[in-house]
Design brief:
Blueprint (H helix, E strand, L loop, with lengths): L3 E8 L13 E8 L4 E5 L6 H9 L6 E6 L2 E2 L5 H4 L1 E4 L11 H11 L4 H14 L15 H13 L6 E5 L7 H18 L3 E5 L2 H7 L2 E6 L2 E6 L1 H6 L4 H6 L6 E4 L1 E3 L2 E4 L2 E4 L12 E5 L4 E4 L3 E2 L1 E7 L3 E8 L2 E8 L9 E4 L5 E4 L2 E2 L3 H4 L3
Parallel strand pairs: 3-8, 3-9, 6-7, 7-8
Antiparallel strand pairs: 1-2, 1-4, 4-5, 9-10, 11-15, 12-13, 13-14, 15-22, 16-21, 17-21, 18-19, 19-20, 22-23
Helix pairs in contact: 3-4, 3-5
Bound molecules: adenosine-5'-triphosphate.
């Protein structure tokens, strides 16, 4: 297990890259803790696989260094970095038994057979494959095969990190849930440093202690699931995490007052605005109330999704989503109000700090 330090890493696939837009990965400079479970989350093309391949050594970064526990490994191969990898599709030897598939990475490294036996049996238990140890892999289902791949990733006790690249893509939805929870448990038991790439927020939020949200080649926030929900650093995080995502509307701010259209909204604290950039007010749909008092709103549609209702509305000419409990009433001629403490102010897409949070309040 290792702490992974990414020092000023950038990557462009073209050697002629000059402008920031030419880079698939813009500057990444972070330390990932030893034993942490990280998810790299973001839409297709945002640079997740590029970053993962730089960590594993499949790709040499255009700029920067990568360190494991303070040791520079930038020039080392994947093998020399001592990393286990689990890919999107199962990599299984069909003619071997389940046991031999799991034993392969150990026997390959000349681990004594008694230790192989012990470790493989542990992994068989962990992955619920004990009942099929002697079966050939050939006839297994796709998710059983992927369990073998996951098991193979976990079987070596001394790896620096385990990297997972969308490992549950081929798994059916129910089994996905089971494997996700199992992986979380395996992480708790083993405390390997794990990096898990996905574009699925549910997968990221259930697996990871820390979610690394990527957008357009950069890391826009690293945080716990709660931090990403409560204090998104960037409008992209607000929009991408949550269902529906955060509402954003153009605003102007003066002291502790924001204006959206012709409405005045009191803020809990005064944001520290430095530039004359584009200002937006953000509020999650869960922190908006509909009642008899408040600001005018037009309700366009109510979607019933079981325990909750999603109200699609228009506020000051802007679309607004509101999440209500299933038994919340919507009065005729409803008015809208925002929970002051859940409002975020964003300048050119980045969250603006406010006076009291900077002073530690
Ligand atoms: N071998 C390559 N040569 C040129 N451009 C590439 C190469 N691999 C990726 N890219 C580009 O780099 C950017 C980041 O791609 P990357 O595969 O890292 O994204 P991703 O977030 O993993 O996406 P996905 O979820 O679709 O795999 C994209 O614009 C992609 O087109």
């Amino acid at each position: 297990m290792a702490r992974i330090s990414l020092e000023h890493i950038r990557h462009a696939y073209s050697p002629r890259a000059k402008a920031a837009g030419d880079y698939a990965l813009k500057e990444v400079h972070h330390d990932w803790e030893d034993g942490g479970a990280y998810a790299l989350l973001g839409p297709s093309g945002c640079g997740k696989t590029t970053l993962l391949n730089i960590i594993s050594g499949l790709l040499h970064p255009s700029d920067g260094r990568i360190l494991f526990d303070g040791r520079d490994v930038t020039e080392l191969s994947t093998e020399e970095r001592n990393i286990a990898q689990v890919f999107q599709f199962p990599v299984v030897y069909d003619t071997m038994t389940v046991f031999d598939n799991l034993a392969f990475p150990l026997r390959n490294r000349k681990v004594p057979e008694a230790e192989v036996e012990k470790r493989v049996n542990e992994i068989l238990e962990m992955t619920d494959l004990a009942g099929m140890a002697k079966r050939r892999a050939q006839r297994l289902t796709a998710d059983q095969k992927q369990k073998i791949s996951l098991g193979r990733g976990l079987v070596r006790a001394n790896v620096n990190a385990i990297l997972f690249d969308e490992p549950l893509t081929v798994i059916d939805p129910h089994m996905k849930w089971v494997l996700r929870s199992q992986l979380k448990r395996l992480h708790r038991q083993s405390r390997f440093t794990m990096v898990y790439v996905t574009h699925d927020q549910t997968e990221a939020l259930t697996f990871a202690d820390k979610v690394v949200v990527m957008h357009d080649g950069q890391i826009v926030q690293i945080g716990t699931p709660a931090e990403l929900f409560e204090r998104p650093s960037h409008t992209f995080v607000g929009y991408f995490i949550g269902s529906p995502g955060m509402n954003f509307m153009p605003a102007s701010v003066e002291g502790v007052t924001a204006r959206v259209g012709d409405q005045t909204i009191a803020l809990a604290n005064a944001p520290i605005l430095r530039s004359d950039g584009k200002i937006e007010l953000g509020i999650r749909p869960e922190f908006i109330k509909l009642g008899r008092d408040g600001m005018p709103v037009t309700i366009n549609k109510v979607e019933d999704i079981g325990r909750q209702k999603i109200v699609r509305a228009t506020f000051c000419g802007q679309p607004l989503s509101i999440v209500l409990a299933e038994d919340d009433d919507i009065p005729t001629d409803a008015k809208v109000s925002f929970d002051q403490h859940a409002i975020g102010i964003f300048s050119d897409s980045w969250r603006v700090e406010n006076r009291s949070s900077r002073q530690g309040g």
